[in-house]
Design goal:
about 180 residues; alpha/beta; seven-stranded mixed sheet; 5 helices; 7 strands
Length: about 180
């Protein structure tokens, strides 16, 4: 789908400095795997995906999650853990971020801010990507992310992503989290 490939390039451009010299990357909530495949090729990564649902459209290794709040990997298995446009699909954000810190030393998050346009776009796009996916629209604002991350023993930065063009309808956040 063209929206996924466009989003993959947007995410790749945003993560360039963070993925240049890393090796093992986990893509949590990898969905159809198109973003993971793009990042894997662009940065020559050993990328593994994981998701509760299994519907890859491309060939990357995917390990099915056994539950919504536990990553099926050993401690310190990855250099970087990615949460790309998926944390708004769960109320278990804190648990998943804590799990990300358990299995990796750095987390990169790309998420939409909670606007009415984001909610409409998410419902429509997810209907076409995977009609069976839950879409609770549990978006967090920058302040809500700050509150959540203050509860974890980590260092973080949260940035509002510059829109790729003037009338781009969504506003995204970029969050980088590292262990202390």
């Amino acid at each position: 789908m063209i929206t996924t490939r466009y989003r993959a390039k947007l995410i790749g451009d945003l993560y360039t400095d963070q993925l240049q010299k890393v090796d093992k990357v986990l893509d949590v909530g990898c969905g159809n795997c198109i973003v993971g495949e793009y990042l894997s090729k662009r940065f020559s990564l050993k990328l593994v995906g994981t998701d509760i649902l299994f519907y890859p459209k491309v060939d990357i290794p995917v390990v099915k999650m056994e539950g919504p709040d536990r990553l099926p990997f050993e401690d310190n298995s990855f250099d970087v853990v990615l949460f790309n446009d998926m944390l708004h699909h769960t109320e278990l954000k804190k648990d998943l971020v804590a799990e990300g810190l358990r299995v990796g030393s750095k987390i990169l998050i790309f998420e939409m801010e909670p606007t009415w346009i984001a909610k409409i776009v998410d419902r429509v796009l997810n209907f076409f990507h995977n009609p069976g996916m839950e879409v609770p629209l549990a978006f967090f604002s920058k302040d809500e992310w700050t509150q959540l991350l203050e509860q974890l023993d980590c260092q973080y930065i949260i940035e509002v992503v510059k829109k790729p063009f003037k009338f781009y309808p969504l506003q995204h956040l970029y969050i980088k989290i590292e262990r202390k």
